[in-house]
Design a protein that fits this description.
The structure holds 2 protein chains of 2 kinds. By secondary structure, chain A is mainly β. Chain A has strands spanning 5-7, 10-13, 19-24, 31-38, 42-50, 53-57, 64-68, 74-78, 87-94, 104-105, 109-113. Chain B is mostly beta strands. The chains are: A mainly beta, B mainly beta.
Chain lengths: 114, 110
């Protein structure tokens, strides 16, 4: 059974650009969550999608957005990139809603903003 | 708000030494508690969890007990191996999202 797949693995962008990251959950999993990992702030929750609807959102500005498709694949978008957006973005999937379920994490997308 | 505090690393141990990584939390209500592990270049993996007071989570020789009276969930292992070298994250679930501690890097030397 394939794990959570995140693409691309690495990205380099410049300030002001926008970026789209992709996450394919484990087959049969309907919940996808996104987390940002930085050395300074650690791991922070961005949002959760379930059945194509955003169910929960962390404390991030509106420049961070996401969506989920009918096949449960999810994308997150960051517009007007800032240097501070440089981070490892992790996606996690689970069969059902909620963080009490075992979350399966992908290897992440490392975003560098220059 | 909810928060998790972990001991800062790195923690450097010799193989077969005893491991303790401290974790305390602040939360309203009765959150579920987790330990996740991150190996180099990989995402996080759930190591163990406990969902109510006095529960003990265990996996691969690691253990942690949910202590409501001290709001703690310390991770222990009796004999560490080089392959245990990784970053360990304590986390709680409140409001259907995980709140993580800052992570503790463990380095085990042969």
């Amino acid at each position: 059974k394939a794990g959570v797949t995140q693409t691309p693995r690495y990205l380099i962008k410049t300030r002001g650009q926008q970026v789209t990251l992709s996450c394919s959950p484990i087959s049969g999993h309907r919940s996808v969550s996104w987390y940002q990992q930085t050395p300074g702030q650690g791991l922070q929750f961005l949002f959760e999608y379930f059945s194509e609807t955003q169910r929960n959102k962390g404390n991030f500005p509106g420049r961070f957005s996401g969506r989920q498709f009918s096949n449960s694949r999810s994308e997150m978008n960051v517009s007007t990139l800032e240097l501070g957006d440089s981070a490892l973005y992790l996606c996690a999937s689970s069969p059902l809603r909620g963080a009490n379920e075992k979350l399966f994490f992908g290897s992440g997308t490392q975003l560098s903003v220059l | 708000g909810d928060s998790v505090t972990q001991m800062e690393g790195p923690v450097t141990l010799s193989e077969e030494a005893f491991l303790t990584i401290n974790c305390t939390y602040t939360a309203t209500g009765y959150p579920s508690l987790f330990w996740y592990v991150q190996y180099p270049g990989e995402g996080l993996q759930l190591l163990l969890k406990a969902t109510k007071a006095d529960d003990k989570g265990s996996n691969k020789g690691f253990e942690a007990t949910y202590r409501k009276e001290t709001t703690s969930f310390h991770l222990e292992k009796g004999s560490v191996q080089v392959s245990d070298s990784a970053v360990y994250f304590c986390a709680l679930n409140a409001g259907n999202m995980l709140t993580f501690g800052g992570g503790t890097r463990l380095m085990v030397k042969p």
